[in-house]
Amino acid sequence: MAENPPRRPDATAPRRSDATRTAILTAARERFASDGYERATIRAIAKDARIDPSMVMRYFGSKEGLFDAVLDVDLRLPEPARLRRDDAGEVLVTHFLSLWEDNLEALTAMLRVGVTNAAGAERLQGIFRDQLLPVARQVCPDPEQASARAGLIASQVLGMALARYVLKFPPVVALAREEIVAWLGPTVQRYLAAPHP
After folding, report:
1. How many CB atoms within 10 Å of residue 108?
2. What is the pTM of this model?
3. What are the tens digits of pLDDT across the range 10-65?
4. Does 84 share its domain with 165?
5. Is 9 contained in some domain?
6. Based on the structure, what is the number of domains in the chain?
7. Domain range for 39
């Protein structure tokens, strides 16, 4: 009778280290979002993740390393070359709404930490600069104005996110997605494509 060959680990099953890392990041996002950077502690994050604090240090090295991992956000913006100049504002607002609602904890933590911590603000600036600026360069009529236009777009989408998802202003929360796109889309479009005032 032939011996059964040893079972190979299922390639689709997540490794334990991946599950631990995910648990730490999830707990850290929630803790940074609720407590801010300064008050969030490795011990509290570890307790929320139901692991020993030494595991947080093992995976991320320090609170700063964990913070960087939490704020490692890809905005997944549409390819600049695929955006049409005449509807880019509507496309971007729709994209940001979907992105925010699909990643609520991570992006809310990013926004809260960004407004309460200098390192968080710098990280947030870098994310929007590096990822939104190429879009503005592609669409705006004068690439030299792209930086200012990208900044104005960021002010709109981050302001909306702050009011709707963090401060939860009732009139803003009550708006349907289509209404937000109808209100903000033309404003973002103007920032992108209108002649310089």
Report:
1. 20
2. 0.75
3. 544 456 788 999 999 989 988 887 787 888 899 999 999 999 999 999 999 999 89
4. yes
5. no
6. 2
7. 16-70
